[in-house]
Amino acid sequence: MPNYESKNHRGYNDRNDRRQHGAGNHYRPNNDHRPNRRPRQETPQVQVEVGQRFPLTIKRMGINGEGIGYYKRMAVFIPGALTDEEVVAEVTSVATRYLRAKIHRVRKTSPHRVEPRDSYADQVGGFELEHLDYPGQLAFKRDVVAQSLERYKPEGYRHYDLHPTLGMDDPYGYRNKAQFQVRRNAEGKVEAGLYAERSHDLVDLETCSVQMPVTMTVMRAVVQMLQDLDMPIYDEEAESGIVKTLVVRAAAHTDDVQLVVITNSSKLPHKHDLLTRIADELPQVTSVMQNINPGKTSLIWGDETVHLAGEETITEKLDGLAFKLSARAFLQLNPAQMEVLYGEAKKALDLQPGETVVDAYSGIGTIGLSLADVAEEVRGMDVIPEAVADSNENAAANGITNAHYELGTAEELLPKWIMSGFHPDAIVVDPPRTGLDDTLIETLLAVRPPKLVYISCNPSTLAKDLVDLTHDYQVDYIQSVDMMPQTARCEAVVKLSRRH
Ligand code: SAH
């Protein structure tokens, strides 16, 4: 079975596939330019103790969605607090240059504060902004881009045209994939959900407002079946039991649904009964797979995936093209906004007939293949063999003959292609959260393709990369797109053009 999701793989291993310390929940926020890890053991600038309380006015919001105020000129990060609110803060940790605190009480409430739909929003990652109204969330995301630019100061950044963030009409029910840990609680009840932040305490998610409803229907029905059939559930401490994780992914445009049961061993007792019940009670499930991930590990997925029932893959449609998805294939988590994001990339590229384009960091080829009807030639690359194979298969299956994907890094392959005489008119880069490799930036500056579009899932590394890119390119505009409503995450499409 194709089996991919490298550590770099955006949206997957980097924040979805690790289990320890709450990171196993796939809603983990980013931790980029904010000092929130382990407080350093130096003397703080201000005498203050954990548990101490003081009034605090929230001045702005940090890139991870927390409120920031100042106590004796020291920054205080306070999750759940909104700009202009006045709160009583209670210190939870003390570092040299900043404090972390929780809200003890809100004294003055922001007019943008709303009641989160999910009762556990302040416990598990991924709901950092659920207490902020949606216009507030969109404004926040544009501001995160502005804050990142302010921090790295790429050339001319004060004059960049930052378009308002493109959001959803209904910023709920969008997530096509649920990946929940399973365990049996002390009373013997089977639970499935996400770990509370910085812990291994599972929060049972009976409902989840950001998931596509069908993913939750299937998830909860299967949890009930595990309970009824008394299936052996993995127990982390005892390192015993079988079922570790359930993954449900739905295709928005074909109604295909895949269930993957991730297990501690290749054995799955009561498998037959489980599959019979799924067939009888969940006709919407078109594919059932088992992934085997033995032992105590921080990774959610193991190397081996076996077919249990139905099809081996599900198919998603995008822009009139069909994409087959194996269990571990990467796909953006928000199908509706995926079209918006790719539409913006297309608009920024403004490809003309006869032009050639490189789809760098191509995943399963979604971006490049949707450009193939206009382009003379599309070339793409990714570091994951199965993704590259899928891209080429997807091209063939859709009758596309002018697109080719190669295995390798962007920084190696692009110079190689150019040396062999291929000079692309346009390049679109869509790197993982770490941003572009220095060598690739050097190549881009040496090759100077007329059109360059940068799709970013991390405003910090984007701003950093722009410092170099703006030596030769100007930023025409930055269009942020909200791919993950209710979270603090932000994606952006940057249109760059060569300086004269
Ligand atoms: N464009 C795709 C995938 C983006 S995710 C989409 O929209 O779905 C980023 C991709 O970059 C991943 O598939 C990852 O495997 C790949 N990648 C990571 N490092 C890379 C590198 N150095 N060169 C090329 N691809 C890389």
Automatic annotation (TrEMBL):
CDD domains on file: AdoMet_MTases
Annotated segments matching region Disordered: 1-48
Protein name as it appears in the record: tRNA (Uracil-5-)-methyltransferase related enzyme
InterPro entries named in the record: MeTrfase_TrmA_AS (IPR030390), NA-bd_OB-fold (IPR012340), SAM-dependent_MTases_sf (IPR029063), TRAM_dom (IPR002792), U5_MeTrfase_fam (IPR010280)
Residues that, per the record, bind S-adenosyl-L-methionine: 332, 361, 382, 430
GO molecular function: rRNA (uridine-C5-)-methyltransferase activity
Gene3D superfamilies for this protein: 2.40.50.1070, Nucleic acid-binding proteins, Vaccinia Virus protein VP39
Keyword Transcription: no
Stretches with biased composition (Basic and acidic residues): 1-20
Key words, A-Z: Methyltransferase, S-adenosyl-L-methionine, Transferase
Top-rank taxon, per record: Bacteria
Domain TRAM per the UniProt entry, residue ranges: 47-105
UniProt key word Transferase: yes
Active site annotation, chain numbering: 457
